[in-house]
Amino acid sequence: MNLKSQIKWTMILGMLSLIAGSFGHLALTDIYHGEGDLFTEWNILRACAIVLLFFIGSALLTLNRALKAV
């Protein structure tokens, strides 16, 4: 994978991270208000954490590769 496509994938993961942050906020609001069944909200938070983990990893790898290219 070349650097340009790696940057594009990192940007896509960044956008997904922003969306995941919004869903995470909504899930945490429901958890705070003590809704009845919180199974879905906790699964949303787990999915958000995975998206953020992939984004951070991708960003660090892309920056490392860009630094070596400079």
Give an account of the 3D structure.
The protein has 70 residues and is mainly alpha-helical. The chain has one domain (3-69). It contains two helices and no strands. It has helices spanning 3-32, 39-69. Helix 1 packs antiparallel against helix 2. The chain starts with a helix and ends with a helix. The model has no long low-confidence stretch (mean pLDDT 95).
How would you describe this structure in keywords?
2 helices; 70 residues; 0% strand; single chain; 87% helix
Give a brief outline of the structure.
The chain has 70 residues and is mostly helical.
Radius of gyration using CA atoms only: 16 Å
Q: Averaging pLDDT over every residue, what do you get? A: 95
Estimated structural class:
mainly alpha
Globular, elongated, flat, extended or rod-shaped: what is the shape? rod-shaped
Helix content: over 70%
Name the helix and strand elements from N-terminus to C-terminus, one letter apiece.
HH
Contiguous runs where pLDDT drops below 50 for at least 5 residues: none
- Please indicate the percent range of residues in DSSP E strands (runs of 2 or more): under 5%
Count of extended strands: 0
Detail the topology: elements first, then pairings.
Elements: H1 3-32, H2 39-69
Helix pairs in contact: 1-2
